[in-house]
Amino acid sequence: MHVPDGFIDAPTSVATGVVAAAAVAVSLRGARRELDERTAPLAGLVAAFIFAVQMLNFPVAAGTSGHLLGGALAAILVGPYTGVLCVSVVLLMQGILFADGGLTALGVNITNMAIVTTVVAYAVFRGLVKILPRSRRSITVASFVAALLSVPAAALAFTLMYAVGGTTDVSIGKVATAMVGVHILIGIGEAAITALTVGAVVAVRPDLVYGARDLRQRLQLRVGGELVDAPAAEPAVPVAARSSRKVWAVGLVTSLVLAGFVSFYASASPDGLEKVAADQGIDKKTEDHANADSPLADYGVKDITDARLSGGLAGVIGVGVTVVAGTGVFWAVRRRRTDDASPTVVENV
User: What is the value of pTM for the model shown?
Assistant: First the structure.
């Protein structure tokens, strides 16, 4: 659902850019409460994994494909604020390096794919977790439903933006019907990928899943006729010492394999937005990407003629750049939290 330049007019693009910038600023502050020394590097990995899986377009209907948006997955794994940042990092890397998603439409894409999907998915997820039995299976089920609903929500958000600032005169009713219809199908794929990924991590390291933090039951003691939380028992091995390097390594290798090898077999059919745009005529004023001559444009390495090698190398580079950029951002946010929490020493004169 990467919106190119020319779909949305300048005033609406600027307005969504302001919304996106404000949401990112709020998320930077909120992410300080979500990240710790274990989850900061994992958040960078989540961004890289989303980048890799977004290269795997899957068929959803005749002549149409879809790909992961990632907002639900990121929000459940690392938290809603950090999730917005994860998807935003991916979109920034894709727009600058791979000419995927317009630069003037960056605000539109962040609003649709990072903000709307994350907010809708996490709201649905938290609501379901509260009413479902407290179990790992419930986390997986809630992840599936949340991801499923987040995709048509983003499609509807794009339709509303197009109704306000679309550059062609088309029937908004037809666009809405087509966008929501095809993205419900894409949402099924999104839900399956999200539920499988969250379920896999919860099965081995539930302590690393932000959305599963309520699975740990607190011991309560009756004091003076009232139940109070008992002090947490000191673990035999400190939590900080429980290395997450294995999870990080497995996730990175998986991302590299998906982007560097499996992506070659992805569907070549246009994705949901491209298909609707062509069918409904909303792509008549599409503009060439400002970075169309990038060495990595269209997910291929310039001057490498072998399609498999070119695409695979571009995918590997993309995963590497995204994990480095994402990890750098999240470590900086984590360090800012540590600095803010440091006590201030006042010297007597």
Answer: 0.89
